[in-house]
Amino acid sequence: MRKLKVTEMNRLTVDEFKSSEKMPLIVVLDDVRSLYNVGSVFRSCDAFRVEAVWLCGITACPPHVEIHKTALGAEDSVEWRYFKTAAEAVSELHAMGCKVMAVEQCEGSTMLNEFVPDAGQRYAVVLGNEVKGVRQEVVDASDGCLEIPQFGTKHSLNVSVTAGIVVWHFAQEHIKSAKQQQ
């Protein structure tokens, strides 16, 4: 096997990305402190053509050198918006017809491996602060909670790792759905 060169990967340009069809998913960051986590989330969202990233509260917005360091330019390709609070973002998402899922350990959470998104439904996932998680008022306003099964001694994952896992889960389901429609 030979590693591919960047020029052999046929990646989209930023303009091509912006005009391409997106996965019907919006990632909402609720008070994420680390700019490196924000950048990493942008990069994962670019990889899977997520519709947008919504930044809320104390979550930093581009342009910022620390975001760029991990996003590597994905902050320029992925659409983003800022909201003063995640509760405001959730309200707008509901008005847009999105089903909003908080990614949090809650009573009655659906384990991610058991969650199958409804075909044709637009979704948003809310990821929370590195210490406190998703605010309770945002959990209350959400349509449900998704939880990543964990089997070690720690009770949580890094928020950017969580974003990657959750976005990949939605991408797998989106790919399956697209193949079935062909």
TrEMBL record:
GO cellular component: cytosol
Annotated ranges, domain tRNA/rRNA methyltransferase SpoU type: 25-167
Gene Ontology biological process: methylation; RNA processing
Keywords: Methyltransferase, Transferase
Record GO terms (molecular function): RNA binding; RNA methyltransferase activity
Domain of life where this protein originates: Bacteria
Any Pfam family: SpoU_methylase
Protein's recorded name: RNA methyltransferase
Organism: Xylanibacter rarus
